[in-house]
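JOB MANIFEST
job_type = single_chain_structure
chain_count = 1
residues = 109
[input]
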Amino acid sequence: MSFGKMITLIDIIETTTSQDEEGFVKKEDNIIASTRAYREERRPSRKWVNLAAYTEADALFQLRVIPDLELKAGMLLVCDTGSYTIFNVEKVKGLYLEVLAKKLEPTKA
């Protein structure tokens, strides 16, 4: 994957919970990295057919490995098209990460 295809700017966000002295739980979103990635939306291609086990995934992100950073399921990716929850992370050839994610849709009140 070349830098020419990595045109989507993303923020990787980790949600942390903390408890104050009165016992109330507070959630905070912390941006742990901002980087470029290649984003591919779900479509009927050979790659997506092979990923049939991850039927809820809407998008595939490919990005370079960030030293000393471990991406985990449940973290958020935010880009210009919206927010995505990470389902699966795989290392490819030791240089890249392939991230399967599901788009978060706002709930209607």
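[summary]
DSSP finds one helix and six strands in the chain.
The first strand starts at residue 8 and ends at 19.
exit_status = 0
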